[in-house]
Amino acid sequence: MDQQKSAPPPAAPYHPQVETPWSTGLCDCCQDASNCCITCWCPCITFGQISEIVDQGSSSCATNGALYCLLAYFTGCGCLFSCIYRSKMRRQYMLQDNACGDLCTHFCCESCALCQEYRELKHRGFDMSLGWRENMERRGHGGVQVAPTAPYGMTR
């Protein structure tokens, strides 16, 4: 018997999300000299500010800054904590990865990596001194996270 196999239905078109480049380079620290100095002398402050924005307010600047400080003090490698946030940030904003990877970038150039992340969030409209809640209030969201919308509504 000759059975014809039906061809599978055509797959939906695949539209990969394109990664965008960082707004500044890793070594462009001099673009924000005050942040560069703060990060050089006390990276826990810059890291705390970055982490609060990346976590969308679910963790505080002070808590993450203190954890970073403790980890750096006891292990000498605060980069173990900060590289996780670089990865989160890259996924949130579809930022390009570099050849070294996030851990290597933070391990070799911790201050430069933190400064680049700080500048990227500023470039995206965040006032880093305010924290998540006040940034959302200024944007008109009242400190509440706005859920993303589906392009064509929800269907079953």
TrEMBL record:
InterPro entries: PLAC_motif_containing (IPR006461). The chain crosses the membrane at residues 65-85. Keywords: Membrane, Transmembrane, Transmembrane helix. Pfam families: PLAC8. This is Uncharacterized protein. It comes from Kalanchoe fedtschenkoi (Lavender scallops).
